[in-house]
Amino acid sequence: MASTTDAARDIFTTGLHNAHALEQQALQIMNRQVERLENYPELEQLLRRHIQETEQQRVRLEEVMSQLSESPSALKEAVQGFMGNAAAIAHSVASDEIIKNMLANTAFENYEIASYKSLLVMGDAAGFSNLTGLRQSLDEEVNMARQVADLVEPITRKYIEIGSRGESAKI
């Protein structure tokens, strides 16, 4: 029978793999959105900055995995990457793509916050003492969630304004 510490370490390892794959999904979603944004430079700028943060978050997760003699899960990476691309494509055909993206981005950032909070509890339970990088990633996600939430109303107003002029307000 596995010890409590071994079980907690296994849970933490699974959480790390999941978080790393989740960040892969986030990159796919943001990269697809940035490719298509034209009318919303404030969102494009925010996403480009967060893409860089997300790449660093993946590095931090890899560093923790390495300390546990683990590496990212190729299967989880592939599945999450596919899901990120599929989500972005699904929104791209909608006339209100930007609105759907804003709602999805708000939800996704909060999902990532919950993921990092859970991961920190797992790491603590596993006796992993170096959680600074994960806390930094959590702080970045909290900041991004706030900024995305702050853009929902102005982006919606801009979408309405552009559409009212008879122009394509899609992206």
Automatic annotation (TrEMBL):
<dbReference type="InterPro" id="IPR047114">
    <property type="entry name" value="YciF"/>
</dbReference>
<keyword id="KW-0175">Coiled coil</keyword>
<dbReference type="Pfam" id="PF05974">
    <property type="entry name" value="DUF892"/>
</dbReference>
<dbReference type="InterPro" id="IPR012347">
    <property type="entry name" value="Ferritin-like"/>
</dbReference>
<dbReference type="InterPro" id="IPR010287">
    <property type="entry name" value="DUF892_YciF-like"/>
</dbReference>
<dbReference type="InterPro" id="IPR009078">
    <property type="entry name" value="Ferritin-like_SF"/>
</dbReference>
<protein>
    <submittedName>
        <fullName>Ferritin-like domain-containing protein</fullName>
    </submittedName>
</protein>
<feature type="coiled-coil region">
    <location>
        <begin position="44"/>
        <end position="71"/>
    </location>
</feature>
